[in-house]
Automatic annotation (TrEMBL):
This is SnoaL-like domain-containing protein. SUPFAM superfamilies: NTF2-like (SSF54427). Transmembrane segments: none annotated. Signal peptide: none annotated. Residues 5-134 form the SnoaL-like domain. It comes from the Bacteria.
Length: 155
């Protein structure tokens, strides 16, 4: 492993942390800046009424703005904290990488839902950005505050 490899991995970890903290805090500009202009963010392996797919920064921004406005009764949580754990980052080229990262979301009820991200990253200029994020949910609490939130915040 080279110094460049280490720097790339750390930059990717930093983008993942920025995505998580800005998403939980609804810092939309910071959240959207984690993605390439043509990024895709989509769910997989969830019930049909909770599937989503957003293409490009504009659609990702619009989705986050709906959350910020609270449209559709997004959820009843007074706080949301996504925690990232194991992350396997594979550099696939000088400007590309793939990652699998486990996450769990905590809300007022404690552990609310959990799963993993399957990501493709692309280096744009000096920045590593998310080009494609597949969100997979493995588990949710019976009383999950997000059970209806995703379907209510879709377009």
């Amino acid at each position: 492993m080279t110094l460049e490899d280490l720097l790339a991995r750390e930059a990717i970890r930093d983008v993942m942390a920025k995505y998580t903290t800005s998403g939980d805090r609804l810092r939309i500009d910071d959240f959207v800046s984690c993605f390439t202009q043509d990024a895709v963010m989509e769910s997989e392996h969830v019930p049909a009424d909770r599937m989503f797919r957003y293409e490009g920064r504009a659609e990702i921004r619009a989705w986050q703005e709906r959350w910020l406005r609270g449209e559709g009764g997004t959820h009843g949580a007074t706080f949301v904290r996504h925690h990232l754990s194991t992350s396997k980052i594979d550099l696939t080229g000088p400007d590309t990488a793939k990652a699998r990262t486990y996450w769990v979301a905590w809300t007022d009820i404690g552990p609310d839902h959990a799963g993993y991200y399957l990501d493709t990253f692309r280096k744009v200029g000096d920045d590593w950005l998310i080009a494609h994020r597949r969100v997979r949910m493995d588990w949710e609490a019976d009383a999950s505050l997000f059970r209806s939130a995703i379907s209510n915040s879709n377009t």
